[in-house]
């Protein structure tokens, strides 16, 4: 899933490619992806792109006084097309194409989503705040408002909730997903199950800097990369996420995994839990 660093890099890349360009049309290939009807998608036809920015994990392409907001969900991506096909894109259940943005020189963008579970979302709105997911976002880790004091207030309000889930909840902190929450907690040497409200004092300082440094470093590495390079850059710089069974780059212990119904987390027991493996509830049920 693209998270804050990748979406930030996508926004920067697209801003350079789209600035001052006109949108000829947008072909919708997956009707379920469009979540709004007023203004219609056709309202962007002929509009000049005014800018591209990001809100958490949402992309925001502003054109003609409107905003095309895009959430790539778990398996969505954007692919630049030096030449778009002459014929408009058509719905095709076997194709990953969700939508195509055709520009004024026959270049464009393909918005795709792999897999059968379709969660990618497009919104055409007059203000980004008209998108419920944007309106409910918590503070952005890269913003000035995200201070150590703000983090302390968030953790206190979340009570005994596990810190892994708190970091991932977009209404609490914007832009952090499954991968970077694993990386942040590994950098902080903290258990994913640690209760949020118990993180105080030195632990709070450590977690705050782990968030800022992990996200900030990932953004710095991603900045300037084309969309085609971002997935490889992310994967090659992860310490624990997606690396179950491999050696922890810090201590050499084996990276472990806990599986859930639709996701998993990875961690290092030596670095994060005092050497004690976390219970994998799904595996425990299988063994009964």
From TrEMBL:
Chaperone found in the keyword field: no
Keywords (A to Z) from UniProt: DNA damage, DNA repair, DNA-binding, Glycosidase, Hydrolase, Lyase, Metal-binding, Multifunctional enzyme, Zinc, Zinc-finger
In this chain the Formamidopyrimidine-DNA glycosylase catalytic domain maps to: 2-93
The segment(s) forming the FPG-type domain are 239-273
Q: Which reaction does it catalyse?
A: Hydrolysis of DNA containing ring-opened 7-methylguanine residues, releasing 2,6-diamino-4-hydroxy-5-(N-methyl)formamidopyrimidine
The protein's required cofactor(s) are namely:
Zn(2+)
**Gene3D superfamilies listed in its UniProt record:** 1.10.8.50, MutM-like, N-terminal
Q: Which InterPro entries match?
A: FPG_cat, FPG_N, H2TH_FPG, Ribosomal_uS13-like_H2TH, Znf_DNA_glyclase/AP_lyase, Znf_FPG/IleRS
Q: Which residues form a coiled coil?
A: none
Q: Does the keyword Transferase apply?
A: no
Under Pfam families, the record lists:
Fapy_DNA_glyco, H2TH, zf-FPG_IleRS
Q: What is this protein called?
A: Formamidopyrimidine-DNA glycosylase
Q: Lineage of the native species?
A: Bacteria, Bacillati, Actinomycetota, Actinomycetes, Propionibacteriales
